[in-house]
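Suppose you are handed only these lines of text.
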Amino acid sequence: MWGMMGITINQNGNPGLITTHMGHQPADFTDVRATNLAVVLRFVRTNAPCSRADIAASTGLNKATVSSLVAELIDRRLLRETGLTEHRIGRPATMIVVDGAPYAAIGLEVNTDHLTVVAMDLAGDRLLSWRRAFTGLGAPPPKAIAAITALARRAVARVHGEGRHVLGLAIGVAGLVDADGVVRLAPNLGWRDVTLREAVVAALDEPGFSVVVENDANLAARAEHRYGPYAGVANLVHLNGHVGVGAGIVSDGRLLRGGLGFGGEIGHIQVEPGGPVCACGRRGCLEAVAGVGALVRRLTGGTDPSANGGAGAAGADTTGADPAAALDLEPEVEDLVRRAQAGDAAVLAAMNDAGRHLGHAVSVLSNLVNPEVVILGGYYVPLAPWLLPAAEAELRTRAVAPDAGGCRLAVSTLGHNATATGGAASVLDSVDAGQLPLRPS
Ligand SMILES: [Zn+2]
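From them, the structure of the protein bound to zinc ion can be written out as follows.
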C-alpha cells in the first residue's frame, strides 16, 4: 500500500526518480502525509473533475483524511474547487480539479540544429512553445551555453510575467549526461565534459528552482509517459530520431537510467559490421546507417564515404566536416518525404534499409526489456510510413519471443516538442511523486 511506504527523491533531487523503501523501520508521519498528498494529487490529475468522496472511494483513504489532504492541497494552490456540484442521491458534492494557474514547469531541448523550450502548467496546458535554430555543432560550448541560457531566461521571464511560479527547469541534451548535469560526451554536438547545469544555474542567478540536465531521449520518454497516446503504459520506449538516435526506456513505470545515467544509447549498437564510421568513432552503429543525418547525407549527394562520421567526438575531427551539413535537417527531411511520395527508387531503398536496421535495434530492446510499445520520434515521424514496414518485419524476424513479445511500433504525436515537453513533464512528475511546492506567497 502507498500509505505504508516511505518515499525519497534520489540523487541530487533529480525529479520524479523515486525509490521506495519497504524496510522494517516505520515510515515517519511527514513521509506518510507527503505520500498521501501526492496520491490525492495524482488521482485528481488523472480523474478530474472529482469529488472528495470519489477520492476516498478510489484511494482507500478515509473521508476525514481526504478532506484534510484536499484542504492542504488547495491551500498550496495545487487543487481548486470548480464551483460546480454534482448531485448524487440528493446530496451535492463539490467538484475538484488541478489548479493550473499558479505554477509552471519548463523544459528545454538542446539538439544539433535547434533549441526548443516548452512551459507546461500543472493541469497539463502548454503555456509556451518556442523553437530556435541553433548552431549546435561547430559552435564552441560557451557560445552554445549563452544561447541556451538566453532562451531559458526568456522563458522564465515570460512565466514570471504571467504571475506564475517556476517549479523547475529540465534541459535535455543529445548525449551522455551524468547526475551532476555534466554533459560527459555529446558526439553530435562535439561536446565533452561540458558543465551545463552549473553554467545555467549561474546564468539564471541561482534561480531558487531546480535545474536538471538529462539525456534528450530520456525526457522524450517522460513526455510520452505523461502526455502521449500511450501515457501510463508501464513499458514504453521513445526512439529519438535526429542526427543521433537515442532510446528513452520506461520499464515497469520507471525511467531506466542505469548506474551513471548513460543507458539507452541504442544509436551505438552495431547493426552493420564494417559499416560507415559513426560520430562516436566506431563503425556500423545504428545512427551511422539509420540516423536521420546519415539518411540525408546518403540521399543528398553525400556519397563521399569520408562524410560519414565527419562530426568526430574529438574536436580536431570536426575541422574536416561541413558543420552546415548538420544544421537544420527539417527542409532536408521534407525533401526526402517529397521524393518518397514521388516513388524515388533511391529514397525508397534507403528508407527500407534504414527501417530494417531500426527493426534490428528494436529487436534488441524487445529481447532485453520487452517493451509494450516503441514510439518513433523526432524526424522519424514524417519518415515513418516508409520506415515502418521493414522495421516491423525485421523486428518480428529477430525477436525471440512470439509476436516480438507483444511489442508494437508506433509514431509519436508529440513531434519536435517531445524532449522539451518531457523536461516539463519530469518536473511535474516530481510534484506527483511528493515533492510539493510550498504555498506561494
Ligand atoms: Zn556510434
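What can we learn from it? Confidence is low (pLDDT under 50) at residues 1-25, 303-326. The first helix runs from residue 29 to 47.
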